[in-house]
Amino acid sequence: MLIPHDTRIALDIVVDLVNTAPERAGSPEVDELGDVSSLYTFVKKYNISDVGELGEHDLNAVLEVRSRFEEVFAAPDARTAAELINRLVTSAGTTPQLTDHDGYDWHVHYFAPGASVAEHLAADCGMALAFMIVAGEQERLRRCEAPGCGRAFVDLSRNRSRRYCDSRTCGNRLHVAAYRARRREAAG
């Protein structure tokens, strides 16, 4: 599956944003976007451009967008996902435009000039999710199957076989547990 660079970045942002939610951050009490400072850190991490000064209103709007992205990952089918994405992208007031900034080749920004950070995320990331639906790849929007994890990820493996958010942590932990269980069983 060929995914353009800007779409891949937007998918990474969606996954990271969804995984900041308290139930995904490892503790039900911890929200990795719990304050405006955390939002600034998130914006800086992904070099999200043209967002200006951020405040509580921006934080609350981003948390709402995050909640809507979570619904897309939980959607039971492509039609439901498409309806959710359509509402999200429409609410962002998309204005597609070609740009080549910050050393990146030509790509499309879907957010309007002067858009808030929430509108920026809803438009660009919503369109990245839309491309997954259009490509018939909604099943690649997954949650980790490791018990107690549930982190979001996009399965970009060739044969759509990825089951864990990270093979070095969740995947390895389960494989080691299965190995030890087999050894105990063999030992009798």
From TrEMBL:
<dbReference type="Pfam" id="PF07336">
    <property type="entry name" value="ABATE"/>
</dbReference>
<dbReference type="InterPro" id="IPR010852">
    <property type="entry name" value="ABATE"/>
</dbReference>
<dbReference type="Pfam" id="PF11706">
    <property type="entry name" value="zf-CGNR"/>
</dbReference>
<protein>
    <submittedName>
        <fullName>Putative stress-induced transcription regulator</fullName>
    </submittedName>
</protein>
<dbReference type="InterPro" id="IPR023286">
    <property type="entry name" value="ABATE_dom_sf"/>
</dbReference>
<dbReference type="InterPro" id="IPR021005">
    <property type="entry name" value="Znf_CGNR"/>
</dbReference>
<feature type="domain" description="Zinc finger CGNR">
    <location>
        <begin position="140"/>
        <end position="183"/>
    </location>
</feature>
